[in-house]
């Protein structure tokens, strides 16, 4: 029995094919997760993606509850697709320059993280934004 030896170019090419197959599977998985996040955000006035025990997530929740908003909260550490959702949020958060959680969606659009939420609250644009989204009636 003769064993065929592969050249380094053939080995490199076969490794590339494996990596590309894994990459496209990951891309497909993130694509379906992105669709899930998008569907959730568009079907609720306010969605907050959080991690239990995260102090900044607690601040975001308390601010929204204090304003009278009842956001849909997704605790990523308790969700089966939590790591995949967190990867999608990481890409949405300015290409990974900011922390991915808390991540707040208002009116189906990605508002941002805690910094953006607090900035909107301080400059007075948060309440009108929440009213436009249907999260506040007064």
UniProtKB/TrEMBL annotation:
<comment type="similarity">
    <text>Belongs to the glutaredoxin family. CC-type subfamily.</text>
</comment>
<dbReference type="InterPro" id="IPR011905">
    <property type="entry name" value="GlrX-like_pln_2"/>
</dbReference>
<keyword id="KW-0963">Cytoplasm</keyword>
<dbReference type="Pfam" id="PF00462">
    <property type="entry name" value="Glutaredoxin"/>
</dbReference>
<keyword id="KW-0676">Redox-active center</keyword>
<feature type="domain" description="Glutaredoxin">
    <location>
        <begin position="46"/>
        <end position="110"/>
    </location>
</feature>
<protein>
    <recommendedName>
        <fullName>Glutaredoxin domain-containing protein</fullName>
    </recommendedName>
</protein>
<dbReference type="InterPro" id="IPR036249">
    <property type="entry name" value="Thioredoxin-like_sf"/>
</dbReference>
<dbReference type="InterPro" id="IPR002109">
    <property type="entry name" value="Glutaredoxin"/>
</dbReference>
